[in-house]
Amino acid sequence: MEKINKRDEKPCIRELTLTNGISYPSNAELIMLILGSGTSRVPVEYLAEKVLRVVEASNPPDLIDALLKVQGIGTTKALMLAAAMELGRRLNRNPQGRMNSPGDIVPFVQNYAMASQEHFLCVSLNGARDILSVRVVCVGSGNMALVRPREVFCEAIKEHASAIVLCHNHPSGQCFPSEEDLVMTEQIVKSAMLLGIAVLDHIIITKSGYFSLLEHNLLPGIDFKDKMEA
User: Fold this and answer.
1) Pairing of β 198-206 and β 131-140
2) What's the CA dihedral at 36, 39, 42, 48 to 10 degrees?
3) How far apart, in Å, are the Cα atoms of 222 and each of 186, 192, 202, 216, 230?
4) What is the edge-to-edge ordering of all strands in the sheet holding 198-206?
5) pLDDT digits (tens, 9 = 90+) for 88-125
6) Could you read off the pLDDT of 165-192 as tens digits, one per residue?
7) What share of the chain is helix, strand, coil (3-state, %, to 5)?
8) Alpha-carbon distance 124 to 200, whole Å?
9) Stretch 35-60: mean pLDDT, rounded?
């Protein structure tokens, strides 16, 4: 059997991170560092990719249960992953997060721009336009027309939100809204009027930027200047 020369081995993600810093790993590689190892049946690289998809599609209250459904993730690893996510969320929470313009929302949802699937998000705000929460409504395969208004508003009503901002990513990198995006937005705006909840904007995010329906006067029945002065 040919002996493997250690000098020919590729450096592992731990070595690369120690050399290049904690900002070097991808999201999946960060999860690999948290997990440490996989199982006899599931390599850590594959396990990390599965965990990442679950993390991206889950809201904090549902994360542990969702992780426990992943083959290779037991209670200890599920708690460890959820604790790491919660710590990061707490440390990076901006208690003064407020929407004065569409661009103020982008930093709170920008991480979804890297996702390989479309994620439809709902940002809840109070009367002062303080951000209450950012929630994943659904994860799709490219057809966000399947978003149902009741799924958008259920948590916003519980939070006594007075306004929401819709948001979703375009993995294709195309920042402009599709016809389906505009039709779906109009349906949600009509439902919001019945509930007494304002839809302040629908923002599309990509790796290179964002597109605000409000800024381009494409939000049904809303003029950008009037909305920003309200």
Assistant:
1) unpaired
2) -20
3) 11, 13, 12, 10, 11
4) 131-140, 118-125, 163-169, 198-206, 209-212
5) 877 665 545 788 888 899 988 988 888 888 999 999 99
6) 999 999 888 889 999 899 999 999 999 9
7) 45, 15, 35
8) 10
9) 90
Element of type H or E holding 139: strand 131-140
- Integer CA distances (angstroms), 78 to 51, 53, 58, 166, in order: 10, 14, 13, 30
Whole-angstrom CA distances from 205 to 88, 140, 156 are: 22, 15, 21
Position 10 pLDDT exceeds 70: no
Q: Indicate the burial class of 77 (C-beta count within 10 angstroms; 0-12, 13-18, 19 or more).
A: buried
3-class secondary structure, 37: coil
pLDDT tens per residue, range 54-75 = 998 888 888 999 999 999 999 9
- Give the mean model confidence (pLDDT) for residues 125-137: 90
Strands 198-206 and 163-169: parallel
Contact 202, 165 (CB under 8 A): yes
pLDDT score, position 227: 53
CB 42, CB 34: distance < 8 Å? no
Under 8 Å CB-to-CB from 2, ≥6 apart: which residues? none
